[in-house]
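Example: Carboxymethylenebutenolidase homolog.
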Amino acid sequence: MANELRPCPCDIGDRFDYGGRGQEVQVEHIKAYVCKPPASTDKAVIVIHDIFGWQLPNTRYMADMLAANGYIAICPDFFVGQEAWKLSNDWASFDDWLKTRNAGKIDKEVDVILKYLSEQCGAKKIGVIGFCWGGAAVQHLMLKSPHLKTGVSLYGVIKFFEDRFSLLNPTFFIFAEKDEIIPLEQVTLLEQKLKQNCKVDYEVKIYPGQTHGFVHRKREDISPQDKPYIEEGRKDIINWLNKYL
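Written out as structure tokens, the predicted fold is:
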């Protein structure tokens, strides 16, 4: 009953029935999903999963989309073997679960993945995108990792890093108008602080009528009113990466 009493926006959306076109690899102490484009490239994107983990078909679908657009895409297990969140879990235990999975403590894993992309995949220009928990991780990385040329944060939980705004490289923030865990006031404040403090290119975009997870957790084929915004969000990701990578 706990889930019914405390619904979470992360529940909203669909779990895709999707197998993925890439392969799983072991990179030092991390498992990762990798998908490469048909033609060789020196551009790569690290994909940071949400609370449902690196094996979520939806996230692999997004990695494959990046590969189809010419990027080496890698989605590592940033929980490093710890269990991803399950819909059957009791939301009352979520805060305790989250304490051992800090979106601001992934630097060691990112360094390992950067080395792999450079040495094993020939990547010279590397960006990062992330969803929800991963969106917050993108903001963290854009504040401290000069090796990542650009970032796209999708409905990243602002409160994790709400007091820091000096981004090192261009960053695109995607938000949903009707996101229950990221109020629009927080988004407005983020825009104000970025305007005051940020010296690199950035964009904050709110998609009308959308809910948390809309870019990768909604099926555009059964939600005709959402389809244009889901497609727009995905095109915006590619356009941003194409511009800065």
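The first strand starts at residue 23 and ends at 27.
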